[in-house]
Amino acid sequence: MLALLGEAKTPWDVLIIGGGATGLGIAVDAASRGFRTLLLEQHDFAKGTSSRSTKLIHGGLRYLKQGNFRLVRESLHERGLLARNAPHLVSPLAFVIPCYRAGEKAFYRFGLKTYDALSGKLRVGASQGLDPSMVAEHLPTIRTQGLRGGVLYWDGQFDDARLAIALARTAVDLGACVLNYFPVTALTKGSGRINGVVARDGELNREFTIPARTVINATGVFTDSIRAMDLRQELPSVAPSRGAHIVLDGSFLPGKSALMIPNTEDKRVLFAIPWHGHVVVGTTDTAVQEINLEPHPSRSEIEFLLHHAGLYLSRKPGPDDILSTFAGLRPLAQAASQRNTALLPRDHIITVSPSGMISVTGGKWTTYRHMAEETLDRAIQVAGLPVRPCTTAALPVHGSTLSPTAGNLRFASYGSDASLLLELEQADPQLKERLHPALPYFAVEVVWEVRNGMARTVEDILARRTRSLFLNARASIEAAPKVARLMADALQKNQEWEQRQVAAFTALAQNYLPSGLEAPHSPISSFQS
Ligand SMILES: Cc1cc2nc3c(=O)[nH]c(=O)nc-3n(C[C@H](O)[C@H](O)[C@H](O)COP(=O)(O)OP(=O)(O)OC[C@H]3O[C@@H](n4cnc5c(N)ncnc54)[C@H](O)[C@@H]3O)c2cc1C
After folding, report:
1. Considering only Cβ atoms within 10 Å of each terminal Cβ, which end of the chain, N or C, has fewer?
2. pTM value?
3. DSSP letter, residue 185
């Protein structure tokens, strides 16, 4: 990638700042339309919000509740496209709403019929009413006392950071240059128009001035810091809101269905979702002032999640049951001066500054492709690029294969690359070792991701190429030395590098242990390979 950057003799057609869902989606779109495309990410791909979602590819029932039919229909359409284009990373998931009050079941049945209808031809499955025994079949650990029945509906589930890496690889397959650890530090202008950026190679500490015909700001909650490089005085365009999650052992919600809690004490929805053999419970919606790359759930958010999970599960989870906690900041497009971020729409806004920089803010993971299409259409107009139609609605994501588990169940999320991981393992049987008994990951993945997934640090491997840190923070700390060793071999680094990496990761992982609560031990989880 660095060589590709060095070889560029003319301005890039499209330069994107930010390597989350939004920026990567735009890179794929731009490259697939044949534009010379460069994406710069200050840290690792998906380091920000895009690795910290609730892992749903969904229409969003809460938006239905708010009467935002347009957003729900658009999201459901995108859900269908993504399931088709990335079947190795997105899968259908049944959600069950348990009903304990009279009239509740009929109410949700009606709402979900609308949800089904809005899905159109790309429907995942039809919703249905359940009697109490069927609810218990889907959710074996549900509290059955007072249970009157439930409603089942379908949505999609995914691995957010792995989809981000797959999008980065798709963009590269299409000829784009994408660089992580490459922060943009300034914008360059000529005759009042933005004509490029100044960026720093974070590893070699070298500065580059990079010309481009159009610059797109896709930096999520950081969007205003890039806008400030362009315009001195600007009203904030983003109202950040923190969403926290806790992760529990899979035994808290065995089975394949997710629990949907339709009405929390703060009038929101909450999910408990089976994910990689564990259970993710989330999320909260807390307006925040401070924006950083490592937001941390507050004690009260964790208590809120434990409390609500405990209301519905027969075995109440306690602080000691938490294996990991993580939080993300929603880049909600600022609408007027609303203080309650739960009321802000999860819609996106595209703006063009007087100097021609395009900023895209808001949206959801689910709608990244559509946002990218609209942003690129706008960029073509603004920069006078040749008009070429968008083709991403039918563009397979890297690794896409008709049979997601074709290679091997262990490596299903690698899609068509799974067979290459198996070959690598066969050549070096030591790579068959697990990274940790409580984690569903293997040594071969470390080597593969260093060689092919642009992983540069132990954190890249444990947080985003594998999801170890999000599944079990303590286990991932214990796995760090092994990962550092494997990476040092692959990257030809010395022992000092290994030690620094382990120390840095161990310090970071403290953020994923429940705040102020005693760190739980890492039980050998019920995960089966
Ligand atoms: C708690 C929570 C749960 C969510 N759950 C879901 C869900 O289940 N389903 C769904 O569809 N959506 C969900 N979302 C929304 C979704 O995750 C976000 O809309 C999406 O990830 C935003 O992506 P982004 O690329 O705009 O921002 P980000 O992922 O934050 O990416 C912006 C990137 O810009 C980089 N950057 C910043 N400054 C610079 C610079 N100077 N130079 C270079 N790079 C820079 C950052 O490092 C960052 O990586 C959720 C959001 C949250 C917070």
Report:
1. C
2. 0.95
3. E
